[in-house]
Specification:
single chain; 463 residues; alpha/beta; Rossmann fold; TIM Barrel; 2 domains; 7-stranded mixed β-sheet; 6-stranded parallel β-sheet; 18% strand
Amino acid sequence: MRILFVYTDINTMGQGEKTYHLGVGMLSAVLKNKGHKTDLVPMYGSLKLNSLFKKINEFNPDILALTSDTTQFPYVKNIIKNTSHLDIFTILGGVHASLKPGCLEETEGLDAICIGEGEYSLLDLVNSFNKKPTRYDIEGICFKTEEGIIRNKTRPFIENLDSLPYSDRELFDYQKIIDSDFGRASFMLSRGCPYNCSYCASPSMGKIQEGKYVRFMSAERSIKELKYLKNKYNFNSIFFADDTFTLDKNFVIDFCGQFKKEIAVPFEANSRVESSSKEIFKALKEAGCFKIHIGIESGDEEFRKEYLNRKMTNSQIINTFKEAREAGLLTKSYNIVGFPCETPQIHQATVTINKEIEPDGHVCYIFQPYPGTRLFDVSCEKGFIKPETSNKIIFSRRDTSLDMPDFSRREIIKSHQNFSYNVYKAKSLKKALIYRLYYSPLGEILLKIFNPLKGLLKKCSRI
């Protein structure tokens, strides 16, 4: 069978990077291992329907497979509608389909959705396929038929990640993706997150399948694939994009010991206040880690605990960043503005704590209400999501779909644009002004036109 994947990354924070989707790469790898043929139409920055139709004519797929989160769904829905006249079976996977399965009925031209991890559900579908599915009882797949919707139970989580093949990076032209991010490769050792943050879809994703949700590859399997990548691609650093790389101290120490001997490439990784320690930071530094990324989200301790379900104290945050610096690591903070029930005064606490911890870099996103999260429900209950704007296409993480009386859209966008300036202006006016340009509308235009400028901005501001 011939499966054509479509991947969109439209109106997101990226300014020039081409992104790699590990899930699509893994789906392709599993299918190829069983003799099926796959191809990809990536859409970075804008819809490219002409490129899609050209690839369809060249590749002649039996199945069109798409993935989407909520921010990308309007674009994916448009793609499906524009290909609905073709005799191609269309299936959608990803977080949006998993947590909002009603999209199957609502989307013209969509034949099926995959709920949860899709490697073996999609493989079963493809193996049963002959122009149209010959089976409608495949676990993890819901079908739209002339008789109505057929909903099947989900598959259990894949228990042993070591059993999976290497992700198909050639599908995306992975070297170009590395080059677009200034020589940085990305990698993940795990799936799932044990925490229950109210703004994140992960807790809900962990409940839709049976079995253990949080899983790590073995250190040996991870090192083996990293060796393969090192021999095949040219990169000068690695970003471990796991939700919480430091979750298991014993794994971190074991992995870091092997990584230092076998790979020896500078890297950065995500951590959390709750799973950080001097011992872990020391092991990371000795293995070649140069930067650790840690989520703060909100600097207001009470608001963070009540609304975000983040239990760490401000003292713990400050101490964690201090310990990371003492271990010789650069630090990067993750922050969000525009939460439901947030106010400008609450957001100011986020600015204040960043001024105190003085991270070497940071990001500040604008909150997005994802279906399946507690804060999505809060946004609906409070009337912050209006029916007339619920399907509005917005610039992901740079605009808000909420309408709140105590924190207006204009104030949220302004707070986002000025966040970096307000954090750094007292210590480094130069750095503050660079960030202000970067996050301004003018900066967005300049970065799109003069993408090489981003390298200078990143170097100067140490993002």
